[in-house]
Structures are given as C-alpha cells and as structure tokens.
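Why do we care about 3D structure at all? Because function follows from shape, and shape follows, mostly, from sequence. That is the central idea of this module. The next example makes it concrete: a single protein chain, its amino acid sequence, and then its structure expressed as tokens.
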Amino acid sequence: MILVILDFFPLFLQVTCNSFTISNGEMQDVGVGLYPSMSLLNHSCDPNCVIVFEGYQLLLHSVREIQIGEELTISYVESLVPTRERQKQLMRQYCFECDCPLCQNPEKDAEKLAGDEHAWKEVKDAVNEVRYPKSKEEWKHVLARCQNLLRSHKGHLPDTNIYQLKMLDCAMDACINLESWEEALYYGSRTLEPYRLYYPGFHPLRAVQLMRVGKLQYSQGMVPQALETLKQAYNIMKVTHGTDHSLMKVLMEIKEECEAMMRMQ
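And the structure:
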C-alpha cells in the first residue's frame, strides 16, 4: 500500500504544479483541469497574458502589446495579495522566487494592508472561514456576519484594504443570492475604486466586477450610470475575453438595452 502511494506521489506533484483552476463566467472557481500546452507558460505577478474559460475551454489572451521575442507570461497566483504572501505561495507550490517588476517594487503593499491591524486580521479570518453557501439561510448568515464586521470596523479599515475588499465582495454576493439588489449595489459600488487601483489596465476580474455593478445599476433604474459602467466593462472585456465569449455577448445585450433606453428619454 505504501509503495502504491509512493508511485502516485510524483504524479500528484505534477498535477498540483501544472493544473489550472477552472472558473465560470463570473470568475468563480468551479473545478481543476490539466492543459499541457498552457502549463509551459512561465509566471509573472504582472503578466502580459491572462487566462479565461469558456466552459472547460481555456482561452489565452494578451493584455498588452508584446514585443517580438518577448516571453508570454501568466500569473500563477492572485496578484491582489501582498508581495510576501505571493512569494510564500509561489515557493510552497512551485518552488521558485519571483523577481518580476511587481515583486521588485511592492509600492502598493502598504495600501493593501492599510488600517487597524487587529481589525483587518479579524476580517481576514472571517473571509477565510466563508464557504460557498448552498441555501438562502446560509447566505443570510454570511450576510449578517459581513454586515456586523463592516459596521464594527467602520472608520478603522479603508475599502482599499484587501480583506475589507474581500468582505465587501462577500456581502455583495450574499445580497445577490438573497435578491437584495439595492444593498448589493451599495457594496458593489464600494469595490470599484479598489478594483481600479489593484487591477489596472486590462484584467478579467475588473471587467466582471464592472459588469456586475452595471447590471445592478440597470436593475435600479440608474440607466446613465449603468451605461457608463458597462462601457468600461466592455472596453476591458473585449481584450480579456474576446468578442466571441458568451459573457461578452451577455454584456453587449445589456449595454444595447441601456443605449436604447437612453435614446428613448
């Protein structure tokens, strides 16, 4: 039995190092897959390419101009976390140190952990404890926890603190699942500036967040604001997802509805 486990251990390590987390249209994790050719791409915390999924199909898109002979790179880890945590994760899972420009110049780390340390550590623990709920009652519990923490730490944590940002995202998700659209918009709107700060340029996470907030604005009759937000999402998503992606088609439909309503006013 021990010999069998040892035989499979190298294979397990290969899967751990070379697998890709499959995400749905809203960039939520739904599974893990192996894509051998994409596993050849090296890492940068500030990559020139991003990966998105269309079902189980992996799509690679460049997010800036790439020079002849320049290496294509993707990020193996979430760039939102501070430099030290990214380095620890890369060493633990992939056994290397990153020396990309973002790691050499961690100027945003102070802002990512701004505010009262005791407060953000409490919020961090709470966020890490959240598991994707399966019922409305569980979502109500998650929302109540988020509301209590956001209320108790008001004035102690800026929205640019990454754990406060994750808590706002969690509260937004809970409100959407509970169909509390106005409150979902309140939390979602607070995330837009931090997303712009931490995901500059073309990033799929920012595109999806803009689209979600734009849809909420539209549901609340805020048509001019929704159109502006959806235009921002469109300008990013046409690069990160491409015009043929199913999510892009949904975005274009909502954007066209807003434009039609604006013409009627």
